[in-house]
Amino acid sequence: MLSLRCAAILTFFSLLAQPILAQNKKEVLSSVKALEPTAWENAQQIWEWAEPGYKEEKSSKLLADWLEDAGFKVQHGVGKIPTAFTATIGEGKPVIAILGEYDALPGLAQNAVPYQEQPKGKYYGHGCGHHLFGVASASAAISLAKQIQAGHIKGTLRYYGCPAEEGGSAKVFLVRAGLFDDVDLALHWHPSSRNAAGDRSSLARIAVKFRFHGTSSHAAAAPEQGRSALDAVELTNFGTQLLREHVPDKTRIHYVISSGGDAPNIVPNFAEVYYYVRHPSSDVVRNIYERVVKCAEAGALATETRLEIRNEGGIVEIMPNNALSEVTRRNLKELNDLKYTDEDIKFALKLQETMPAPRSLDSIQIVVNTRGETGQGSTDVGDVSWVVPTTGFNAACWVPGTPGHSWQAVACGNTPIAKYGMTLAARTLAATAYDLFHSPDIVQQANDELQRRLGERKYKPLVAPDQLPPFNYRDRTSSP
């Protein structure tokens, strides 16, 4: 009888608390909306700076200062990475992490117009929308901080300023430094041309530069005395073309020749090719990578050049978490209020004329369920997800049909279309974190699910234990 009475009392107080929790959640969402003008100004500034990986000094400082002004305790240079930082508020459990990124991509500088127009003197552009990513995450964190300061949320909120996601693998080194050891769960998002959520995975990836050192000579008068580094690159690439027939399905191997010589009449004494190797399984990536290395070794052997291998980082696939993704998907569906103005539609239709596969503009009103899918991109969020239950989602910040890593994505990034998606992402992050702070059972379910999915497997990063962050991986290659 006593236990039934206690249960009834607990149920009574739980019912009393529900309207209060709902009201506090509304206040969080209202706070995000109130922050929108400042958030958009910050996003536009980072879009304008467009700083490459590990060089995001101004973008990192802007976000860190914004969070510090809101009451967060900021630690700069975490993981021995100058542009990485954490910003923490609150105390105790649970510890919820919100990830933010802010690096730009090479060769994608573009004005905010619906036709290709590169601004003078600029090389980098936010073709993956990370200027929106870092800002929306910070806006959500600041809105939640007000509830922590008011005593309505118990626990710790930590923003992670994560540089160099685009090929630099910074989060791998943050994980290795133990910066996620006390975290109970992590949230992230990504700009896209659609809204989507679910326990989706990603492709593991190894990045490497093969650098060949040969012997210069006059290409016409003394070709027999030269040993062409460019020939070594071409043989390497030919070998990998043949290899493509003999690798598992869903493998991706792609490259650029980042240095190929200086003049046609000089046998190149230096050449470099930059490779990515990807697959849904990190174990498969390890195996394929070793086979690609053999192609490079063969190229060096055949041309009598010297091979130098420069590892540029590796990232594992995302470990999905359905317990968390269901909370995120519910909030994204409930909060999705995206709608274009007549001026937005005019811009969008003009931009879609440049796209091979445009989609209906009405698709921004839909939230796609990506449960069980494997995305075709790679992200260092994967390394976080093997040590902390993690979930993410996409918000429509680009015109439907816009491919990532394109000038069209950069063009969208400084328009109201991007602002709408960024604000939706911030509200979804804030709402999801708020729900999880008040749902210890879901936090436990998410951790149990991570352990169940891991089974006997252990987290094995795709970087060597002694590898340092590739701080100069975005430097334009020239002959050494």
UniProtKB/TrEMBL annotation:
<protein>
    <submittedName>
        <fullName>p-aminobenzoyl-glutamate hydrolase subunit B</fullName>
        <ecNumber>3.5.1.-</ecNumber>
    </submittedName>
</protein>
<dbReference type="GO" id="GO:0046657">
    <property type="term" value="P:folic acid catabolic process"/>
</dbReference>
<dbReference type="InterPro" id="IPR036264">
    <property type="entry name" value="Bact_exopeptidase_dim_dom"/>
</dbReference>
<dbReference type="GO" id="GO:0071713">
    <property type="term" value="F:para-aminobenzoyl-glutamate hydrolase activity"/>
</dbReference>
<dbReference type="Pfam" id="PF07687">
    <property type="entry name" value="M20_dimer"/>
</dbReference>
<dbReference type="GO" id="GO:0005737">
    <property type="term" value="C:cytoplasm"/>
</dbReference>
<keyword id="KW-0378">Hydrolase</keyword>
<dbReference type="GO" id="GO:0016805">
    <property type="term" value="F:dipeptidase activity"/>
</dbReference>
<keyword id="KW-0732">Signal</keyword>
<feature type="region of interest" description="Disordered">
    <location>
        <begin position="457"/>
        <end position="480"/>
    </location>
</feature>
<feature type="signal peptide">
    <location>
        <begin position="1"/>
        <end position="22"/>
    </location>
</feature>
<dbReference type="InterPro" id="IPR011650">
    <property type="entry name" value="Peptidase_M20_dimer"/>
</dbReference>
<dbReference type="InterPro" id="IPR052030">
    <property type="entry name" value="Peptidase_M20/M20A_hydrolases"/>
</dbReference>
<feature type="domain" description="Peptidase M20 dimerisation">
    <location>
        <begin position="207"/>
        <end position="300"/>
    </location>
</feature>
<dbReference type="InterPro" id="IPR017439">
    <property type="entry name" value="Amidohydrolase"/>
</dbReference>
<dbReference type="InterPro" id="IPR017145">
    <property type="entry name" value="Aminobenzoyl-glu_utiliz_pB"/>
</dbReference>
